[in-house]
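Question (not urgent): is this output format expected?
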Amino acid sequence: MHPNKNKEYFHGFSFCPAAPSSLEPQIRSLVQETRLSPADFIMPLFVRPGSGVQEPIASMPGVFRHSIDRAVEECRRIRNLGIRAVLLFGIPERKDETGEAGADDNGIVQQAIGAIKHAVDGLLIISDVCNCAYTTHGHCGIVTDGKIDNDRTLGFLAVRRFRTPAPGATWSRRAI
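Got this back:
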């Protein structure tokens, strides 16, 4: 024990007596773990053509591909849970080499945005503009001669970026 009995020593460091109990809540709030609430989350939603469809995604238990009508129902449920945002991913009817369906003014995501905005108040809608779900090869970029053509891809993504919010998306997530 050190000669000064009012202090405790541990590996050469001295520790003063604990702070007054009136300061404990403030101190605790400075060092507490991160607190999360439903309002801090963004729910991913996969939308596909059809009606009354809720198709499970095998690789993501508890996650589904929804038709627009079911996506609207899911958005109501999500909003009632206190989640304030959704991120929409489109599953098109047709795919091609460049992902043209993603830039269609009447595409699946564009339709879903309009339906959700009309039916669910106060929900932030984010749209994904990546090409991978819309291309036959599954790459995010346009493939030319076996390589990703960044210039063509960026031009195409710019078109998608400005077409997607037309029905009311609050924000679009960039692909690259």
